[in-house]
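Demo today. Your pick:
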Amino acid sequence: MYDPRRVVCRTDRRAELKQFPRSPRARLNPKDIGLPSCERRRVPGLRREEPAQLAGVSYAYYPRLEQGYGETMSAEVMDAVADTLRLTEEERDRLIRLAQPDRNLTPLSSSEAVGTVRHSM
């Protein structure tokens, strides 16, 4: 059955997922991950093919994440991308929740949940 609230939620999630990996990719310097940085770059950070290569996925596959289509990626690929982008635990959880909202993540402990609520206030 069609539920417009679900479509909006999925659309919002996908829009946020499109933006999220770009920020960590932009903050990484090629030298930080052992790549030569001798050529000029039009944008800061890594090119899309660089985290794809480092994560062990094809260049054609990685941009799907930045296009908002992470549902089809395996947990191992998502973890490899998160490791490559050097995401914090909070960023990793956010990426996975955006890309794969149905994936089981380790629930927050009660103290972590309280800290998260306090931080958001």
